[in-house]
Design a protein that fits this description.
It comes from Pomacea canaliculata (Golden apple snail). GO terms for molecular function: [heparan sulfate]-glucosamine 3-sulfotransferase activity. This is Sulfotransferase domain-containing protein. By secondary structure, this protein is of the alpha/beta class. The chain contains 12 helices and 11 strands. It has a 5-stranded parallel β-sheet. A 3-stranded antiparallel β-sheet has the order 1-2-5, with no helix packed on it. It has a 3-stranded antiparallel β-sheet with strand order 9-10-11, with no helix packed on it. A hairpin with a 5-residue loop joins strand 1 and strand 2. Helix 9 runs parallel beside helix 12. The radius of gyration is 20 Å and the shape is globular. Bound molecules: adenosine-3'-5'-diphosphate (A3P). Adenosine-3'-5'-diphosphate binds next to helix 1, helix 6, helix 10 and strand 10.
């Protein structure tokens, strides 16, 4: 009997490292870190702090499931282990690899208004480059084709926001009921109600409420109250101010995404408040 066949290794204190039974697969810049951190406050949930990039990285995947399991946090038998790597969503290999690990794994996907996500993605790359003393072209120059002024389909931040392209691959492999879709824009405004549906999806009691999460007006986001004296917000790289963008470009992007959003809503049987 291989050690892996039990999916568990026994450590001290009745805890073991287990493969995740739920994965937050994306989408990048839709609130994946906030959701993971909020869920980690639930007594029946344990979360891997780091993004594993296991199913989307050939070198890591070759290390095998045992390598992956060793990197999961210790948990008790009733607890659910959750990992998040937003890169899984756009990986062509990840759906079948995740399925091979556990065909009944629960998947969570956060989505945001695609134009907002595109701007957020640009903002992240802008700041990453700034940190390395590099510069980045203006958003308007990247997102529109220089010649035709049409939306630039070669720009990665635009591609990722065409959610249905990637969702199709997951739905080819996993039944719809196994994928919970979160409105990332709503998660910012009312995290508890989004988390309630996730608690139901995971089959754990409702625990996260507004005594645990509180609105921090300095940050402009919800933060965590860990105990009577200790509060924690997400790091400065989350909730950055977005650049001011030419409104005609924003309208062009919004129009561009409309048919893609329609396809997505039909595919998922959901409706988001996006134009
Ligand atoms: P912005 O920085 O563009 O505002 P991810 O963790 O997937 O990279 O997503 C980052 C986004 O999470 C942020 O995008 C921010 O809007 C959103 N977010 C949601 N809830 C948040 C919270 N409570 N604190 C900070 N950011 C939050």
């Amino acid at each position: 009997r291989s050690r892996l066949s039990s999916n568990v290794s026994h450590g001290g204190g009745g805890k073991s490292r287990r493969l995740p039974s739920c994965i937050i697969i994306g989408v990048r810049k839709c609130g994946t870190r906030a959701l993971l951190e909020f869920l980690s406050l639930h007594p029946d949930i344990v979360t891997a702090d780091e993004e594993m990039h296991f199913f989307n990285n050939d070198d890591r995947y070759r290390q095998g499931l045992e390598w992956y399991r060793q990197r999961m946090p210790p948990s008790r038998s009733h607890q659910i282990t959750i990992e998040k790597t937003p890169g899984y969503f756009i990986s062509s290999m990840a759906p079948s690899r995740v399925h091979r690990m556990n065909s009944s794994v629960k998947l969570i996907v956060l989505l945001r208004h695609p134009t907002v996500r595109t701007v957020s993605d640009y903002t992240q790359i802008y700041f990453n480059k700034l940190g390395k003393n590099e510069s980045l072209d203006a958003f308007e120059d990247l997102v529109l084709d220089r010649e035709s002024k049409a939306v630039n389909l070669r720009y990665k931040a635009v591609q990722i926001s065409i959610y249905h392209h990637y969702f199709r691959r997951w739905l080819d492999i996993f039944p719809r009921q196994q994928i919970h879709v979160v409105d990332g824009d709503h998660l910012i405004l009312d995290p508890v109600s989004e988390i309630r549906s996730i608690e139901d999806f995971l089959g754990v009691p409702h625990h996260i409420d507004y005594s645990i999460l509180y609105f921090n007006s300095t940050r402009g986001f919800y933060c965590m109250r860990l105990n009577a004296t200790y509060e924690r917000c997400l790091g400065a790289s989350k909730g950055r101010k977005h650049p001011d963008i030419d409104q005609t470009v924003i309208r062009k992007l919004n129009r561009f995404f409309v048919p893609h959003n329609k396809q997505l809503f039909n595919m998922l049987h959901v409706q988001f408040p996006w134009t």
